[in-house]
Write a structure and sequence with these properties.
mainly beta, 2 helices, six-stranded mixed beta sheet, seven-stranded antiparallel beta sheet, 420 residues, single chain
């Protein structure tokens, strides 16, 4: 059968229509096709070599609705992991309402912070947790340098490929959901660089009390300063949401939306003081920090994945009564050396040990249980395991015998911290 050939084929209806010219170019809704396939006068083109050219890509459909893993640089930013099991903590410097989120307090204010089930419903993200801050007094900042904040620190290796400090510096975008009983200007900041002396501060306004809103902020890459980052696991970048400052005190800044030299750790000079009103509240949910200048859809991760990342910084080992912490040997008449293997390798070797209860919450076992006489203590540690001393006065076991370190109470635990 012979080919059927057309010198030209034309069918148009309104703004649509299909057109093929003598050169074989096909146009759809095009006045005259310029390439092998031309849709909408250049909106979508396929050239002779099969190269596709698209004038505009709608990011809402192509990027935001497309699952892309490992976008969020923050850990536990849905606040689902709370190994310390804190139902509420005082706003004290260094306290953690949940894993990876640390309180900074350099003043005399009082308040509480907790994981809450009050969540935004303004879009389809369906969060289950938020962080809630509540003022419990009318204490305001009283001296220069007073401030309070909640935030997270990243390792230097997490920021090593940002290109900051060079002409190729990449931008980041921060997005989060927030509400407060107080209206006005709030602020947040990123801080980093060699010597932790480069700060990017920005403001956001809460216009309606007790109403969730989403905030998106692009952080331009820092082309100045010194950012000699590599695979180092020390502090590299900090993010903090400011809750109170003196306004014009030390550490505040009026230079916004650009990188500044100096430790401007207290946010904007226009910052609302949450703690000058008893019962005032502030919530945050769904915090995402990612590369690029566009805020993509929030990256939901499995709780098991978040927990595994949190274990690099804090591990709480516990179980039911008579569960095992580790194995070791008797070391004298009153104690045993127990090797405790970590769940995953930690950022650095922990230097302290958290326990619960009294010595009787712990025991040493060979062929019977010897009740602990004092809580265990850390002997030495590495990033993968720790040597813990279990105490059991007059245990009756032979020196050098192999023994287990056990819990004698369901609330007993061993916790190790390698937080930044």
């Amino acid at each position: 059968m012979s080919d059927i050939r057309f010198e030209g084929w034309l069918h148009r209806s309104g703004t649509g229509g299909v057109y093929q010219d003598s050169a074989g170019n096909v146009g759809i809704a095009s006045t005259q096709p310029q390439t092998r396939l031309d849709i909408g006068n250049g909106g979508f083109q396929v050239g002779p070599a099969g190269i596709c050219t698209v004038t505009t890509v709608k990011s809402t459909n192509v990027v935001n609705a497309t699952p892309l893993s490992h976008r969020n640089l923050l850990i536990n930013s849905e606040f689902v992991v709370n190994q310390r099991a804190n139902s509420s903590v005082a706003i004290g410097d260094g306290n953690y309402p949940c894993d990876r989120w640390k309180i900074a307090n350099n003043g005399t204010l009082t308040g509480t912070m907790e994981v809450s089930t009050q969540v935004p419903t303004i879009d389809s993200n369906n969060f289950t947790k938020s962080i809630k801050v509540t003022s419990t007094s009318t204490t305001a900042a009283s001296s220069a340098g007073d401030y309070a904040a909640i935030g997270q620190r990243l390792e230097r290796n997490a920021a090593a490929n940002f290109g900051w400090g060079t002409s190729n510096a990449q931008s980041l975008t921060l997005s989060f959901y927030v509400r407060s009983s107080k209206t006005g200007i709030f602020s947040a900041y990123l801080i980093g660089g060699d010597g932790f002396n480069r700060t990017f501060t920005f403001e956001y306004t809460i216009a309606s009390a007790n109403t969730w809103q989403k905030v998106e902020q692009t952080i331009t890459g820092d082309t100045g300063g010194s950012w000699t980052y590599s695979t180092d696991n020390s502090i590299g970048l900090g993010l903090n949401f400011v809750l109170e400052n003196l306004g014009s005190g030390a550490g505040t800044t009026s230079s916004l939306n650009s990188w500044q030299a100096g430790n401007n750790y207290a946010g904007s000079t226009n910052q609302v003081n949450l703690f000058d009103t008893n019962g005032a509240t502030w919530y945050v949910a769904g915090v995402q920090l990612e590369r690029g200048s566009v805020a993509t859809q929030f990256e939901h991760r499995k709780e098991s994945d978040e927990l595994a990342q949190c274990h690099r910084y804090y591990q709480k080992i516990h179980g039911s009564s008579l569960s095992y912490f580790g194995v070791g040997n008797v070391d004298g008449a009153t104690m045993a050396q127990i090797l405790v293997n970590f769940i995953t390798e930690m950022r650095v070797a922990p230097t302290s040990l958290e326990t619960n209860g009294t010595g009787s919450h712990y025991s040493v076992r060979m062929n019977s249980n010897a009740t602990g006489s004092q809580v265990p203590a850390l002997s030495n540690a590495h990033t993968k395991n720790a040597m813990v001393i279990f105490y059991a006065a007059s245990h009756g076991f032979t020196n050098g015998q192999a023994v287990f370190g056990r819990s004698a109470n369901s609330t007993a635990f061993l916790a190790f911290s390698a937080e930044l």
